[in-house]
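INFO batch 0412 | record 1 of 1 | parsing
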Amino acid sequence: MSQAPDGFSPPRAAGPSASSRNTSSHPLWWVVAAVAVVVIIALIVWLTLMVGEPSDEPTPPVPSASGDSSEPATDDWGAFPPLNLDSLKDLSDPAFPKTVGAHAFVKEMRDPQSVIADYDDPETIGVISAAITFSTTSYAINVDNMADPAYLGRAVCGSTTASGGKSIVCVMAGSNETLRVGTLSEDSTVDELASFTEELYDAF
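INFO prediction complete | emitting tokens
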């Protein structure tokens, strides 16, 4: 076998050198790193948006002043909303006064839905019935049943036709109750009944 002359090296087998392998792998790592950064940023943005979205769970109802959470304190009052909305009284456990004007307390009846008290004027023999229902929805119902509702002072008053004949009625709203005062039309005028209603309401 002949020997290569001095200073001459035989050619090596073809193949990538170490330096060429290092330089060719760098762009691949940069692509992988860029994709990972984009994925991380997208994940952060998505999580941020998800945290900021409102919950689909229903909001629990707020209990009313009387403890009945089924009915809020702000109902649809109808065409004649109470004029005393800024000072509604709690009528859930009313103590009826012994006298209102010339009328004297006669009797009281209670049930789970309402309280009814009768007042009598000995001179006119006119009886006024005052009923408190533990619901604000009856406020609009009573006004709708009036033939000619109108504001008289802080009350809404009007005439109705019942089985006992024509009567006059006034209503005022409590915080979660309705005060309804009524009498036969020949016993009192609507102005007198409105004054009675306001005086009774203020006495509670």
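INFO post-check: The longest strand covers residues 103-111.
INFO record closed
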